[in-house]
């Protein structure tokens, strides 16, 4: 089409369409197009190839990690070829063509294919509680029906599957579930914060020693499989010199526009320590619209001001929490609120700054949460004597004033025993209750994981543990919680460090608790998991929960050269 063309004295270009019916034999056809006008005839030869109808399958990942008894999702793309138009069944089988284990199943089992455009579906691979763990299991998805050959070709997609029990390492991540990263040859790299992007990528933030022997803010972005993301910074890595000496990022938030804000502290030219925030574009470059060239530092008027936590408000304002050294040589809980451009927000506290004395000695905030009503809760420690500190929580109204409906005048102190106790993490439950996690210490120098749950008014929640308190010995002595996440089912997972089987070596440690504070025996061994990554020292400072229920812990690991690297571990 068309079958007739009006021809004038000038050359005429006419789009020509050739319709091929479903009954046309496949293969190559030698054809001729002839133009006839009266006694004039002209022809043009061409070849027409009619392909055999077919289907091409591709799976989003070639390596999948599945938690036994649960499901994992991936994207399956079906591309019709040669006019393929038919419903197909999706068959899960081993790559040698034998049946897959009966404990595994695919959903959806059928897909209707039509048109010429690729079709992408969300494919779910589910397992029963009796699925054997281990791997890799060499599997494939085969499209059947519609005249497709039972022998695999392009209509099959191969992948390897690892199955793990809850708490086991996810072997589809990094090497056996572990990733370590050295940053530009540094001898001292530590990750202190970790965020999960909507696309499944992970960004870790912390500190990295530079060539001058000082330290800089450091960020590393990883793909969902644990490989470095080369679209971020230089080969997935970014370092930023903020101050003149020692800089450390202790917290990290992700904005809806994909920008990242890291908060921590820097040492300035006068050897004083100040709050520091740095904002990065999604590609890891500094955002010049924030502060000065992407950087903000704030002196609260003392020799030592340190930010340990950061939250992002829905209006784009940022609140950092930590400590500030007071005139009496005691630390105060300190909060600063910044506008989206990095300037201090004068509507918060005094010129954007709030300091709070919780007890009669030193106080410091290590964690911060934002409530749906705009109130802020900081958690940290309050020192009573040189050897005695309590868990401390302070709740602020949106303007930075103390919320007197919480505890006593907005403050709560909780003693776990007569020793140095402090929380490093805080989560807010949907029911308004707060859970703080950290450590409890005894006179023998032993540390245990410690969790305390509070009612919305700051009183202890007696339905949790014993009188609202839970302590857990993971090993014989050196157990500290640095991070805490709340699962959708109400279970809590604490991450930190513990002595591992090697004896005096420190390793990553995770403990999962039921909503009432009891240990969850379905996780690891009796609710506990420890992981040895390197030589003597491995610690997890941050923890995120993926949408598939897997957990990723981040911190550092000592390598064979006695240097320290960023370390990430993913668990089922």
> Would you tell me the overall average pLDDT?
92
Distance between the termini: 60 Å
The coarse overall form would be elongated
The strand line-up of the biggest sheet is 4-11-10-6-8
Q: How many extended strands?
A: 39
Structural classification: mainly beta
Low-confidence stretches: none
Largest sheet: 5 strands, mixed
Please count the helical segments.
0
* Helix fraction bin: under 10%
Strand content: over 45%
Short description:
With 572 residues, the chain is mostly beta strands. The protein contains no helices and 39 strands. It is elongated.
Summarize the SSE layout with pairings.
Layout: E1 27-37, E2 40-50, E3 54-59, E4 63-67, E5 71-81, E6 86-94, E7 104-107, E8 110-113, E9 119-127, E10 134-144, E11 156-164, E12 178-181, E13 189-196, E14 202-209, E15 215-222, E16 237-240, E17 247-254, E18 260-267, E19 273-280, E20 295-298, E21 305-312, E22 318-325, E23 331-338, E24 353-356, E25 363-370, E26 376-385, E27 388-396, E28 411-414, E29 422-428, E30 434-441, E31 447-454, E32 469-472, E33 480-486, E34 492-499, E35 506-513, E36 528-531, E37 538-545, E38 551-558, E39 564-571
Parallel strand pairs: 4-11
Antiparallel strand pairs: 1-2, 3-5, 5-9, 6-8, 6-10, 7-9, 10-11, 12-39, 13-14, 14-15, 15-16, 17-18, 18-19, 19-20, 21-22, 22-23, 23-24, 25-26, 26-27, 27-28, 29-30, 30-31, 31-32, 33-34, 34-35, 35-36, 37-38, 38-39
